Amino acid sequence: MWPNDRFIKLSGIDLPIIQAPMAGSALSDMVAAVSEAGGLGSLACALLSVEQARQELETIRRKTSRPINANFFCHQPPDDSVRQMNWRRRLDAYYVQLQADDTSISTSSRAPFNDEMCDLVMEFHPEVVSFHFGLPDKNLLHRVRSTGAKILSTATSVDEARWLEGQGCDAIIAQGFEAGGHRGMFLTGDVSTQVGTMALVPQVVDAVSVPVIAAGGIADARGVVAAFALGAAAVQIGTAYLRCPEARISPLHREALRDTKDDETAITNVFTGRPARAIVNRLMREVGPISDVAPAFPLAASALAPLRAKAEMAGSAAFTPLWSGQAVRLSRELPAAELTKQLAAQASENLRLLQIAA
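The chain above was modelled as a monomer; its predicted structure follows.
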């Protein structure tokens, strides 16, 4: 059925579609639905405490026995107190305008993969474990591998893909410039040279021997077909799943996704301190989209939390990270299982017709 079935065979899934691990937006309901439909559901654990992650994994395992993906961040926690103070001063006018209270500022909950999270991997044995921003240290990686899990990580360049393969990744996610959310880049922080999906995927395919997963700008069957034509063995889709009823996003975010045009997203660092694609809003226009004042990831988020809370109470998304990729206009409001099956069926039929035509 599929011209490249390497990732299907590697992961044990039926359909070469991965629901992107979107922290805070895709929890057990969506993960289980996608996996039950034959794709690979992904639980992003970066915003979850160990106990929250345990509860989500328990729920997923009750709902499905199909393969799942547990995803983790691999950033180094920064010590950036001076820039944090400068960042808070940069936001002072907004605090005054919204009458926000900075005594409620807390540290960001985005945590890197550690021994406690690794213990959960050892306990629940997710069939796939994926990482963002590189890989964890070798001891943690060895523990993950000992469970039998297939290891994935994201590359935004050929150099990053080669590095990941050299570290033993079983498959590589090639993330193009079009993708929503955080860039997975880890060998550079320069987003000005990041490559688009159409150019990146075939170059990564040529550079590594492991299966390559295309990510970025894929929201319908045409994108899936294009990814396979470029040599990908699967696709990872995020933004399209945000419009599913299972997505844990606010009404403000859902409305923005429905109304956003193709040229209304941008790469920004003002929400977390690390480049990520979101729908342009007031904060991005007035402070960014890229700010030299924003402290290192994930510290920028802390000072924004009181502003976001005040604005959202008033019905405004002016300070909310509205994560979205460039292909949001191609997405539809469908349940996650139905979306997964439709994408696969339509892409498979299009591939069949192309083979007949050839």
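The mean pLDDT is 95.
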